[in-house]
Write a structure and sequence with these properties.
By secondary structure, the protein is of the alpha/beta class. 60% of the residues lie in helices and 11% in strands. The protein contains 16 helices and seven strands. It has helices spanning 14-24, 40-53, 69-74, 95-106, 126-134, 145-162, 169-179, 183-197, 204-210, 216-227, 231-243, 248-270, 277-280, 286-299, 301-320, 325-338, and strands at 2-5, 8-11, 32-37, 58-63, 83-88, 112-118, 136-140. The chain starts with a strand and ends with a helix.
């Protein structure tokens, strides 16, 4: 899907963005692109499409916090036919540097392409609006909790097709049940399955044999302990998951899903819209519904929001800090119990 903005466009899916790039080649490319998503897999896929269409260009990668972007944009050597500058963490570009970059966006240098990648650039920022006006934006909103499983299953079916494999829909559902909705993890497991089955269709039995089951029951119990601020039990359950070999990132993302669900339950209860809970989450009925309501009421909306921020910060730490992941996870559990 796209929305027009002046002479440029904004896309909310990688598929539409990729199609745009293929249609724009070779004479109608933009000079500036913005790839924005809370999910790193999404903008990395978008960036892969972008790099592929500019495969003859010299690739320069920068961090948004590193000064000198404008200098890089304004310098071309005699030997360079085209240059693609990719800026990660675009939200951290300094205000002064942003002003100079925006001037460049309005009057770009020939044969120089700028790609800004970000998970946190605000949509009301001057930089975002400049790219929206003069360039092309891939802005993929984060799916609602109740949409994630459905989208994940569709993603598995689509990726299997790209791998020139067939997967039974039940097997796709089971894979999402085992692994969760994280697209990178799903891709990794699907690639293993594709090699394992060779020429035949991927079946549920293959998923059971090859893919690591994340024991969600223990994750539910861990979330319950957190929401009732039972630190001793929460730490015990975390250690149990770690002993079973579950990767810290998988634990973290499953905890996040529980926070998202119970935050939504808390908000609906506050708005006297409890009847909508089972519509959004068909599995939350009867005793399970009452349990979620108790957890939501006990933990509180403000704590859910603070908890989600803490979880997202921990994901960044797990990706970038060399500290033992299990130690970081233990620290997070402690924080979530007192937040």
């Amino acid at each position: 899907m796209l929305s027009k903005k002046g002479s440029r466009v904004k896309y909310d899916s990688n598929k539409a963005f990729h199609k745009h790039l293929l249609n724009a080649a070779p004479l109608h490319f933009s000079s500036v692109y913005l790839l924005l998503s809370q999910e790193d897999f999404v903008f990395k896929e978008g960036l892969k499409h972008l790099v592929s269409v500019f495969d003859q260009a010299d690739l320069v990668t920068l961090q948004g916090s590193v000064p000198g972007l404008f200098i890089e944009l304004s310098s071309m050597t005699l030997f360079q036919k085209r240059k693609l500058i990719v800026v990660d963490e675009a939200e951290s570009i300094s205000k002064k540097e942003q002003e100079r970059v925006i001037e460049w966006i309005k009057k770009p240098q020939r044969d120089c392409i700028l790609a800004l990648v970000s998970a946190g650039l605000r949509r009301n920022s001057v930089l975002y609006k400049a790219v929206e006006k003069y360039g092309v934006v891939l802005d993929v909103p984060e799916a609602k909790p109740w949409q994630k499983e459905k989208e994940a299953v569709a993603f598995v079916l689509e990726q299997a097709h790209l791998l020139k494999k067939k997967i039974e829909e039940r097997a796709a559902l089971l894979l999402v049940e085992f692994i969760g909705s994280d697209k990178r993890a799903l891709c990794n497991e699907l690639e293993k399955l594709a090699l394992y089955v060779d020429q035949r269709v991927i079946e549920s039995a293959d998923v059971i044999v090859l893919c690591q089951l994340v024991p969600k029951e223990n994750v539910f119990k861990l979330a319950e302990a957190l929401f009732f601020r039972d630190g001793k039990r929460a730490v015990s359950l975390l250690l149990s998951l770690q002993k079973e070999g579950i990767q810290p990132m998988n634990i973290l993302r499953l905890i996040r899903q529980q926070f998202e669900v119970d935050l939504q339950v808390a908000l609906l209860c506050k708005q006297s819209r409890e009847e909508e809970i089972s519509t959004l989450y068909p599995y939350i009925k009867g005793f399970i519904l009452q349990q979620h309501k108790k957890q939501a009421e006990n933990y509180g909306i403000a704590s859910f929001k603070k908890g989600l921020v803490a979880i997202d910060e921990m994901e960044i730490c797990l990706k970038n800090i060399t500290v033992e992941p299990n130690i970081l996870m233990a620290a997070l559990i402690g924080k979530l119990c007192i937040i």
